[in-house]
Amino acid sequence: MTSPTRFAVSLPQQVADGAFDPDAFRAYLARVEELGFHSAWTREMALSPSPLLGPLEVMTYAAACTERLRIGCAVFVSVLHQPVQLAKSLMTLDQLSRGRLEVGFGLGGRDHLSSFGIPSEGFVARFVEGLELMKSCWTQPRVSFDGRFFQVEGAMEPKPYQKPHPPVWIGGHRPAAIRRAVRHGDGFVGAGAATTPAFAEQVRVLKAELEQAGRDPETFGVAKRVYVSVGERDRIGDELRRIYGTADSAVAGSPDECVQGLREVIEAGADLVLLDPMTDEAEQLERLAEEVLPALS
After folding, report:
1. Helix (H) or strand (E) run with residue 256 in it
2. Taking the mean position of all CA atoms in its chain, how far away is CA 31?
3. What is the pTM of this model?
């Protein structure tokens, strides 16, 4: 896309037991809106070594605390959800926020499927079918869906506030995931764990797939979650190594180093950059706004 780069931030989700501060959360969101960010995003990790609040609940709380800010998740691991119920919850949030919802879906890994009673066999087909069913619920006056995994007869009202439905982002890193984004999504979101060179290669594949499918790249979004830390490498590096086993994807260091790292992400093809410091969000927000983003505008 040729539009100016948009910047988003993470919603504070990493909260220890009993440590959530409603006043600080509201103040953070007020500052995010004041600074003019495009959107604020959650992530989903139902089973995680980090104390992570649920994305849908955090998004709903954030929507109630804001007026203009768009609210998203990158990404829901949608095979772990019953699609009709997820479609209803997301429709409701789009209505409550007056059309400020962005939705990301991804496969996630196979590690925790059995914990949710989901067989690993056919889980890619289940993902695609679930997405098709959610879109049917959002767009069809009456749903008559006869799939491999789901059979649904009925209607969902109201429809989402946004027509035909909220923007759908598909996350992933393999070529098959990129093809799914082109077939079923309005945009592609690169994972935070992907390095910038890996993301650049994904964008090259994406452009080829868009051309082959006859889709206009000017209307197809390209986003990248970037784990970022202004001034402190070890803080975010330790957290990333705990979750992913590596911190190679982080953009961290001095303001100039962060400017360079983010510029490389933009040059790789991102038109929406999701800045995720993981912790100390309020402090990092101010440093990003004052010391980094002005050099990228």
Report:
1. helix 255-268
2. 21
3. 0.96
